[in-house]
């Protein structure tokens, strides 16, 4: 005698060897002997043989009509043999009984299990829902297959185009659009990104990078809600200075300005004046919520996304011709020795006399002109009148830099320029990616650049120390040492910044464009108003969880924004290569097979640099440009007869992380063809059983 039994949901057959009270000894067709619980035995039979029964029953079950079986099935609970008798005949054979069992097992939407070999008809309304779901899934699967076929043929279906960035970077792996791309990529043996490019889903490399960034960082768009800049309620005194700012021509968020008093008296007072939105905007108000969500202005060639709405920025920016609210740091200096005699912080209105633009004046305000060696060509009377003040500021800046270098333990070497990008032909609010690009340079350490940099370092370090002295927490940037791999960190404790060479460093001089500066400004304002009791009045208290949350969010956003800016600058650099028909360039080997172009902001891998010393000068033939991945490779064609650059990458003094920021970051896609093929969860979902199954 043979037996059909249920083994964890799987139907098996075998020869019955012996039978006890609650178990059976069964020999499988393979010869293996197993112990089977009596409750799991579903059918005993003599013929056909087990090897013939299951194939025949499976074939017969496939011919059964589910609607008819559902109609014939008893209304109450029943066994599979009962259905066989109703569907086939009163004398249903063993094969027909097993076919009925297989039919019941394979149709959970029609029949739900009520025990071993026992079933009950699903209620009609539940069955209708299940059948509708099955039909819907069939339609979805047909849509997936149709879209996949279109993609493979080089046509992108509109639903896939609309979901492009979600599919590639934050996919819903059960969405039909995602499944269509995966199926098409797998069937055509094509990488998903290449597949979508070939299908025309990506019509512009520039828009690909721009829309990807917006999708990731600004999913709700870059617009602002209607906001009105609050009026500063304080009665602020008017400063007796004539301040001037130094910025790029494209700068609208003018955060800082300088003034000088007492030249020729032996004691000079340097004023560092910072725009004061913190006097009007309060933590947790509507404008603060907008700023905290964005955390920083995003910069890119030809465009920017500001942290604050333009109307708000214009209310507090240090625009020439206005008396602007400011948080001012006044540093008293000995005119001869430049020794600092003291400092004080004042909340006031500051007359802004001039907005100097260094990109227009770097060629005018030179070291030779500041030293009085040559007249300034092209200097207006207003600029000429500033010569004594600018000369002193330049002398002070060099002195402050030298002092920091003593603390650093080595000098700062600015052996690479800052590159500037200017787009010609931008007709709308933002570039399209087809504009002509001009790449210029601004040498780091130029007089105007040095004056501003040292003044801001002085303010950020002085205020950082002052916050600590008052017991008021702030957001600091610190670096434990200049050893390789020691990064700049953000925290709430005043700790040394080895890269800059100061006791502590708290970003405070850009409150219109960086959120941590606005936070620190609130804390500084509390110190200015309350002095020794500032810790009680400051918006953020020691160990405030809000500060740590701000640091974490800012770090992530600032890293993403800088990465995007570097990527867009690389995009325009690669476009410049095409625009100027550049097929080769000279470069410096910076490590292994990586070179930095001598006259462009471009780092690229090369072949043929093996064995050459770091700092070697090379001629490189350029390969193909990939505008999507921002990749370009080169081949060394000649080693130039120039001395090895021994100061390579000793670029001290920067407060930014990253040595080779111009190298394209890998394009990481979230779509996984292999995962979709092997993971059952990624396959089209099976029809669920009715409720209660």
Number of strands: 24
* Rounded mean pLDDT score: 88
Structural class: alpha+beta
Biggest sheet, in brief? 5 strands, antiparallel
Count of DSSP-assigned helices? 21
Shape: elongated
Alpha-carbon Rg, integer: 37 Å
Termini distance?
Answer: 33 Å
**Which stretches of 5+ consecutive residues score pLDDT under 50?**
649-654, 656-661, 676-693
The side-by-side strand order for the widest beta sheet comes to 4-3-2-1-5
> Helix coverage percent of residues?
25-40%
Strand percentage lies at: 15-25%
Explain this structure to me?
It is a single chain. This protein has 693 residues and is an alpha+beta fold. Helices cover 36% and strands 23% of the residues. It is built from 21 helices and 24 strands. The strands form seven sheets. It has a five-stranded antiparallel sheet with strand order 4-3-2-1-5, with helices on one face. Strands 9-15-14-11-10 form a five-stranded mixed sheet. A five-stranded mixed beta barrel has the order 20-21-22-24-23. Mean pLDDT is 88; it is low at 649-654, 656-661 and 676-693.
């Amino acid at each position: 005698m043979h037996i059909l039994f249920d083994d964890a949901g799987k139907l098996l057959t075998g020869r019955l060897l012996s039978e006890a009270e609650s178990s059976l000894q069964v020999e499988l067709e393979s010869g293996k002997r197993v112990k089977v619980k009596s409750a799991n035995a579903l059918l005993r039979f003599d013929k056909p043989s087990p090897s013939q029964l299951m194939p025949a029953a499976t074939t017969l079950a496939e011919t059964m009509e589910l609607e008819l079986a559902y109609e014939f099935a008893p209304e109450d609970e029943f066994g599979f043999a009962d259905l066989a008798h109703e569907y086939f005949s009163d004398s249903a054979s063993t094969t027909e009984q097993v076919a009925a069992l297989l039919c019941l097992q394979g149709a959970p939407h029609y029949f739900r299990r009520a025990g071993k070999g026992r079933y009950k008809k699903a209620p009609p309304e539940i069955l209708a829902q299940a059948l509708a779901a099955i039909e819907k899934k069939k339609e979805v699967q047909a849509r997936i297959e149709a879209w996949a076929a279109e993609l493979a043929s080089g046509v992108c279906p509109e639903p896939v185009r609309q979901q492009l960035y979600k599919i590639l970077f934050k996919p819903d792996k059960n969405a039909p659009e995602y499944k269509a791309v995966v199926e098409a990529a797998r069937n055509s043996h094509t990488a998903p990104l290449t597949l979508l490019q070939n299908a025309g889903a990506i019509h512009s490399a520039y828009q690909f990078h721009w829309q990807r960034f917006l999708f990731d960082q600004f999913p709700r768009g870059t617009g602002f809600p209607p906001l009105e800049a609050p009026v500063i309620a304080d009665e602020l005194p008017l400063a007796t200075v004539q301040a001037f700012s130094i910025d790029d021509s494209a700068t609208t968020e003018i955060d800082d300005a300088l003034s000088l008093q007492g030249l020729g008296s032996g004691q000079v007072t340097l004023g560092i004046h910072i725009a004061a939105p913190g006097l009007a905007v309060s933590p947790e108000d509507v404008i603060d919520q907008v700023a905290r969500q964005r955390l920083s202005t995003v910069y890119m060639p030809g465009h920017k996304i500001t942290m604050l709405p333009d109307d708000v920025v214009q209310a507090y920016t240090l625009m020439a011709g206005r008396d602007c609210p400011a948080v001012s740091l006044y540093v008293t200096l000995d005119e001869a020795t430049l020794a600092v005699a003291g400092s004080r912080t004042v909340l006031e209105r500051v007359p802004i006399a001039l907005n100097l633009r260094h990109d227009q004046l770097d060629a005018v305000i030179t070291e030779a002109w500041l030293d009085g060696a040559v007249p300034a060509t092209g200097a207006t009377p207003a600029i000429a009148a500033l010569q004594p003040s600018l000369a002193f500021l330049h002398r002070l800046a060099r002195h402050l830099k030298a002092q920091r270098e003593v603390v650093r333990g080595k000098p700062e070497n600015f052996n690479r320029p800052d590159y500037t990008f200017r787009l010609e032909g931008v007709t709308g609010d933002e570039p399209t990616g087809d504009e002509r690009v001009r790449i210029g340079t601004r040498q780091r350490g130029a007089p105007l650049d040095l004056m501003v940099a040292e003044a801001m370092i002085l303010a950020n370090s002085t205020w950082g120390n002052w916050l600590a002295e008052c017991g008021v927490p702030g957001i600091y940037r610190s670096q434990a040492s200049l050893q390789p791999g020691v990064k700049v960190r953000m925290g709430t404790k005043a700790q040394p910044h080895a890269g800059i060479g100061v006791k502590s460093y708290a970003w405070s001089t850009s409150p219109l464009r960086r959120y941590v500066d606005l936070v620190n400004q609130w804390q500084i304002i509390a110190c200015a108003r309350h002095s020794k009791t500032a810790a009680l009045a400051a918006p953020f208290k020691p160990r405030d969880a809000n500060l740590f949350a701000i640091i974490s969010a800012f770090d992530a956003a600032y890293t993403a924004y800088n990465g995007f800016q570097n990527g867009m600058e690389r995009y325009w650099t690669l476009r410049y290569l095409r625009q100027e028909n550049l097929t080769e360039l000279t470069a410096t080997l910076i490590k292994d097979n990586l070179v930095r172009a001598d006259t462009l902001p471009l780092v690229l891998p090369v072949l043929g640099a093996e064995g050459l010393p770091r700092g070697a000068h090379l001629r490189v033939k350029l390969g193909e440009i990939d505008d999507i991945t921002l990749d370009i490779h080169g081949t060394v064609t000649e080693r130039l007869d120039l001395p090895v650059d021994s100061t390579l990458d000793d670029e001290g003094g920067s407060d930014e992380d990253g040595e080779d920021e111009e190298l394209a970051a890998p394009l990481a896609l979230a779509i996984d063809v292999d995962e979709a093929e092997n993971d059952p969860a990624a396959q089209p979902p099976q029809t669920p059983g009715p409720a209660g199954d």
